Amino acid sequence: MTTLNLNNPFDITGKNAIVTGGAKGIGFGIARRFVWAGANVVIADIDLEAAEKAVKKLSEGPGRAVAMQVDVSQPDAGQKMVQKCVDEFGSVDILVNNAGIFPNVPMLEMDPELFNKVLAINLTGLAYASKAAAIQMIKQKTSGRIINIASIDSIHPSGVGLAAYDASKGGVAMFNKSFALEVAPYGILVNAIAPGAIATEGVTEALSGEGPASERMKKTVEEFKKLIPVGRMGDPDDIATVALFLASPASSYMTGAMIVVDGGRLLK
Predict the structure, then answer these.
(1) Nearest Cα to 124, choosing from 73, 193, 176?
(2) Is residue 9 part of a domain?
(3) Least confident window among 59-63, 217-221, 241-245
(4) Is residue 268 in some structural domain?
């Protein structure tokens, strides 16, 4: 039986984490929550400058953050992130697979290069980062947590133009269950979060552009917002607080689960 800290069951003081795509948006929200809950965090992002800025923003937290540049679609990305976390902090206790892209292109207009890129970042990179982290956790002979950022599009499509994204996130949902089953005997818990519409920098950038893809995105977002029962888009911290729960002792009897955080969108 897990012994909880009754004063704060969400305490992760001294734990060492990796957050992919941690420089902005949901990833930064999660990194911020982890640092302020006492964890040390490797902010792994393809944009090193943004990752370094994120580290500066977290400099006053009780935990420590460091930046690294990484392209999660590369075959050795998982090993590099794990090694960075071990070198900086001594172990890997938590991995958050957050990095992802969501180009809005109908399948009838999709070229193989873009489709494969979406899968490489959103699914393949996530799977091999999970493998690398789990191998390290097993080597440490400690329990660990892997948190996969899926999507409500893992369950139901949001609209035309996201076929590649939806395929990748559907894959994340099933990988989450399968890998949870595989590593449970080692005390490693694997769970996912399925966000709905979240107001992030990436969404803002997509909406501010010009051209057919941007126009499709604007239309999709406006129609989507009307279908959210709570009446608003989510904030990165809405996802970060759930990630903290999954990283903490409070979720010690959960694995292979996916928590939907969508303001009730799927109810409609």
Answers:
(1) 73
(2) no
(3) 217-221
(4) no
Q: What is the mean pLDDT of residues 154-162?
A: 92
Angle, vertex CA 154, rays to CA 151 and CA 155, nearest 5: 115
Pairing status of strand 258-261 against strand 188-195: parallel
Q: Which region holds residue 178: left if phi is over 0, alpha if psi is between -120 and 50, else beta? A: alpha
- Residue of 128, 165, 186, 253 marked active site: 165
* Count of domains observed in the chain: 1
> What band does 9 get if pLDDT is binned at 50, 70 and 90?
confident
CB-CB neighbours of 223 under 10 Å: 11
| 4 domain-assigned | no
To the query of whether residue 186 is one of the catalytic residues in this protein, the response is no
Q: What is the pTM of this model?
A: 0.93
- The answer to whether 119 touches 125, Cβ cutoff 8 Å, is no
The mean pLDDT of 31-35, rounded to a whole number, is 98
Which CATH number do you get for residue 33?
Answer: 3.40.50.720
